[in-house]
């Protein structure tokens, strides 16, 4: 038996480990291990034994090596790095794999080595067992270990080719797919993934995948960033994360390598390599390849994301320009209509076309109505312009709800009655007045806008205006208020389809141009109302079950103070202010 493999051989009868190693016959013993190169060394770099199958081919005498030091015969080109590696192996008692270039009498010999500590029964290890083999030219090209000289081989060419492909496109999906396909095919992994993480790094979305049969696809999966320790680690550090799964997960991964992609020190994705059919040792060359590629991919992702954002911004600008053009065309028509009415009726009077004073008065009343309509249109446009320019300053203070509702009733009830629509107002049941915190004139404008729309788009049924008190505390203007009032305007009108509701509050957007033309108006009422309510610390919401099913618009206003509520309310607390 090889004395080095006999755990009871060191020390024996007072004989030192070095003496035992020196007494061994390496040529006869080491060759049975099946390794091409085997030698032992102590921490000072002295060769204690030496065996290499091809020693004679390179003019190396084994007897010459044994007993010599690293600096004297077979010497690592980077001797300090080699000594550091040996020291680390002895201290940690953990083997290390490396590629190392040795020099012998003018020859350079590149070896792949595994350096292992020789563990004595007692005390610290003092020697290492080194096993390895000579690398071929092709294998040298594939190595990225700093102990070997740079060599522009297939991996470097692969990196260059992949980077070139990625730089040719600004499409994110293409970048992700080319990345996984290139790495997966080059390294022959079971699965390669590109993952995007949300800004808070809670979720990881699998964007592209290279997957060999028969392993399960992970494409489209959303993974919890905290589901596995290695995901958390990968999201917290810049260095690659290597994992050996002792227990297979649901995706059968046994060996995992995760590398982050960065742009300007900001993580924007992950590249994950998985070996599912066996446990795999990720070589330094493979790790460096993936790291260098991750740098390229991180930059490509950032550029593609920026391009996409610019593209979307351009489309949004073009859409805004189109909507503004449509809005101006529609608004011009709306302004022209009442203006033509004013001019027309005044012209009839000037030309003496009125047969009697009563008809002349009718002409003047129509001209007056048209002028009011024109003024409202202009006010809407001016209000929006002020809001957009940030020049609408609101003086906020106490507003009595009953007074506000009474003014609303006075303005809007006649309009509802002209269309034979019912009109009800349901104030909250309180023992003390309800005092809001807002601007009276702007709150009145909001309610007239909302109720005016309800009347305009309702042909049968009616409108119900209701107010409810909530004790939900809110903060606005660095003040805390004890609650809010939620005011609702519900109608039985034409309604709005579900897919169109999201656009209702966008400026310059009209849900249906044909409706706007048919019913009149600028289509700015909701947009302006939302801006005004926001400025007063509330919010506006719109609800409709669909076309023909009516609509409900609600908005909230802070309460200046909480009123005293009635302990018992009537079964039907709605009432008609005009009754």
Automatic annotation (TrEMBL):
<dbReference type="Pfam" id="PF01590">
    <property type="entry name" value="GAF"/>
</dbReference>
<dbReference type="InterPro" id="IPR036890">
    <property type="entry name" value="HATPase_C_sf"/>
</dbReference>
<comment type="similarity">
    <text>In the N-terminal section; belongs to the phytochrome family.</text>
</comment>
<dbReference type="Pfam" id="PF02518">
    <property type="entry name" value="HATPase_c"/>
</dbReference>
<protein>
    <recommendedName>
        <fullName>Circadian input-output histidine kinase CikA</fullName>
        <ecNumber>2.7.13.3</ecNumber>
    </recommendedName>
</protein>
<dbReference type="GO" id="GO:0005886">
    <property type="term" value="C:plasma membrane"/>
</dbReference>
<dbReference type="InterPro" id="IPR036097">
    <property type="entry name" value="HisK_dim/P_sf"/>
</dbReference>
<dbReference type="InterPro" id="IPR035965">
    <property type="entry name" value="PAS-like_dom_sf"/>
</dbReference>
<keyword id="KW-0597">Phosphoprotein</keyword>
<feature type="domain" description="Histidine kinase">
    <location>
        <begin position="330"/>
        <end position="561"/>
    </location>
</feature>
<dbReference type="InterPro" id="IPR003661">
    <property type="entry name" value="HisK_dim/P_dom"/>
</dbReference>
<dbReference type="Pfam" id="PF00512">
    <property type="entry name" value="HisKA"/>
</dbReference>
<dbReference type="InterPro" id="IPR003018">
    <property type="entry name" value="GAF"/>
</dbReference>
<dbReference type="InterPro" id="IPR005467">
    <property type="entry name" value="His_kinase_dom"/>
</dbReference>
<dbReference type="GO" id="GO:0000155">
    <property type="term" value="F:phosphorelay sensor kinase activity"/>
</dbReference>
<dbReference type="Pfam" id="PF08448">
    <property type="entry name" value="PAS_4"/>
</dbReference>
<dbReference type="InterPro" id="IPR003594">
    <property type="entry name" value="HATPase_dom"/>
</dbReference>
<keyword id="KW-0418">Kinase</keyword>
<keyword id="KW-0902">Two-component regulatory system</keyword>
<dbReference type="InterPro" id="IPR013656">
    <property type="entry name" value="PAS_4"/>
</dbReference>
<dbReference type="InterPro" id="IPR004358">
    <property type="entry name" value="Sig_transdc_His_kin-like_C"/>
</dbReference>
<dbReference type="InterPro" id="IPR029016">
    <property type="entry name" value="GAF-like_dom_sf"/>
</dbReference>
<dbReference type="GO" id="GO:0009927">
    <property type="term" value="F:histidine phosphotransfer kinase activity"/>
</dbReference>
<keyword id="KW-0808">Transferase</keyword>
